[in-house]
Amino acid sequence: MRIDYMNKLIQCIRREGLDGMLICPGEEMEFLTGLRPMFCERFQGLFVKAEGTAFYICNLLYEEELRRQLPPEIPVYPWFDGEVMTERVEAALREQGLLGSRIGVNRDAVAFQILEIMERVNVTFCNAKPLMEEMRIRKSEEELDGLRASAAIVDQVYERVLERIRPGVTELELQNFLLEEMSRLGGESPECIVGVGANSSYPHYCGSEGVIGERDVVLMDYGCTCRGMYSDISRTVFVGEPTDRQREAYELVKRSNEAAEDLVAEGAWIPDIDRKAREVLDEKGYAHTLINRLGHGVGYTIHEAPDIKQSNPRKLERGMAFSIEPGIYLAGSFGIRIEDVVIVNEKGAREVLNRASKELTVL
Amino acid sequence: MRIDYMNKLIQCIRREGLDGMLICPGEEMEFLTGLRPMFCERFQGLFVKAEGTAFYICNLLYEEELRRQLPPEIPVYPWFDGEVMTERVEAALREQGLLGSRIGVNRDAVAFQILEIMERVNVTFCNAKPLMEEMRIRKSEEELDGLRASAAIVDQVYERVLERIRPGVTELELQNFLLEEMSRLGGESPECIVGVGANSSYPHYCGSEGVIGERDVVLMDYGCTCRGMYSDISRTVFVGEPTDRQREAYELVKRSNEAAEDLVAEGAWIPDIDRKAREVLDEKGYAHTLINRLGHGVGYTIHEAPDIKQSNPRKLERGMAFSIEPGIYLAGSFGIRIEDVVIVNEKGAREVLNRASKELTVL
């Protein structure tokens, strides 16, 4: 149990006027409690009450493992497959004084379970994903160091993957190389996107069958965790000479990335950063192709607060960590993305964690 | 688009008195539509209306890919990161006449998104996981053939994994072997649990660090898909001579498995099958250690209807497919599980799909 975060969580629950929080298995449960149980279709989760106590509801299948791992003051209420789950949940909530209450749910709660409980038990669940992210939006020095270490891993991998990129290599081969190298360097939960040619034009492309041609664009977006903290980097390189249009797009994205990063500082207005990146792209009329937010927070999860976008009207604060990832996406033709993780560090200054080269690279 | 299933779905929506269904990305969306888009924290899903039409809401990021893959008569409503998602969802639901309506959600919908929409838009979502499973609970001949082919893969893998089991081998090594062999034989989405020694006593154990000792129990539970249909098998073997207690437990679980499977037939009462398996275990007082349902339906997903358990009072029908998996779990000591997939076939007869030996095996 992370006592620091449990105390923060309880404060957040009270500030929001909730009666409690339900944390279902996933990365948030893991950083808060160290637990990472299997999460199948059977409802389970840790309930944290505004008054400061906690209890756990799970299927009987998981009871023994959880009892061994949870502190003894946290009771476990098991339900058995042969019973009706919602009846046992109702009994547990009654015993805990939570009937008629309002309980926030975290990002990992599953809709059909939550709706099934609300349909049969007198309890109201509400979206508390923002609360869980607000609680950790200002990273500690230790967490910032974890982000730095994680960024160093993906930077090292970048140097090495360049040697593998040549005509005839498949997206799958590059994906496997990236995943294995991140693991080899101590990164956990590695993930990646590799898009070649027209596939690079879809920001969340998830195929693996493309093959690098004689003249081609290769977009790589990858990351992993180190000490629980995520890295996230994107680089785009060329095999053979880029066309004039590709070269123009690349230089614009690079300037957009750098101009936005230059604005990062304690007190900077988030929508201004997003706007600046788009203004640069619009020098050549490309802003409309940037079809996503400029960036997302990074930490114990790969996407968390703060989003860097127009609809997030707030200022940057010390300890915030997020990606800056402008792109030009010409659907069906090609895409360019350059992404770093940037933090407002312990001194309130901008620190770009990724050091991998952004110069136009022709292999 | 699977027209047969879309028509079934529309009938189910009407029968339940719903105004529509929301299918979020995952295996159910894939078998229904062929689509498998990335599903990040951004809300997206296919809405199917009771009147028979459909539309899709997604982030702008996914619009191009989805438009290329969806039939042209299905409109796509994109929302942009820089806007407020719920406002665009509200506009889409208004245009589609769904404000004030009641919409079922499938297993893959995420609670925080669904709650966020319900908090801001005049629409009610409800749990429709059972509806989606009822729709496919009686498998077609083609689907039963897929289940047979999938079971044949895991049976073949069983023969080969036995050669790898010896003292000093780790759970991780056996897991990797199982996953690779399933893939090599054409199985997709392979998954497995390997529990050695005391780890075998936790039915959903998810570690990988255990090492096989000189005398040990090895529990393996694994499966994959073939033509979209899942397999699921568990076998438990011994390295060195089992203790008398282990031998007794093994023989009881084997008899329990066979006695339950013998009851499977068109018209059999599901709770009777669960009861029979537990009665056999209770000849030596072990029934209380079987802490889960006796079995679960298997098909396009690994766990679906029908559950084989006391609280599922219905009869078996032609085309149903499910696991039978009794076990004895002595927490912290050892566990035994023997699991097959069984179907009520096209002729209404019982057919045990797994042929891998269940005889007590000492390696």
What is the overall pLDDT average of chain A?
A: 96
Question: What coarse outline of chain A follows from CA principal-axis ratios?
Answer: elongated
Radius of gyration of chain A: 23 Å
CATH architecture of the largest domain in chain A: Alpha-Beta Complex
Identify the most extensive interface between protein chains: A-B, 51 and 51 residues
The secondary-structure class of chain A comes to alpha+beta
Count of separate DSSP helical elements of chain A: 10
- Which spans of chain A of ≥5 residues are poorly predicted at pLDDT below 50? none
Number of strands of chain A: 17
Count of domain modules of chain A: 2
Question: How far is the N terminus from the C terminus of chain A?
Answer: 49 Å
How does this model look, in words?
2 copies of one chain form a homodimer. Chain A is an alpha+beta fold and 363 residues long. Chain A is built from 10 helices and 17 strands. Chain A has a 6-stranded mixed beta sheet with strand order 4-3-2-1-5-6, sandwiched between helices. Chain A is elongated and about 70 Å long. The N and C termini of chain A lie far apart (49 Å). Chains A and B meet through helix 3, helix 5 and strand 6 of A and helix 3, helix 5 and strand 6 of B.
Summary tags:
363 residues; 34% helix; 2 domains; elongated; Creatine Amidinohydrolase; alpha+beta; 6-stranded mixed sheet; Creatine Amidinohydrolase, Chain A, domain 1; homodimer
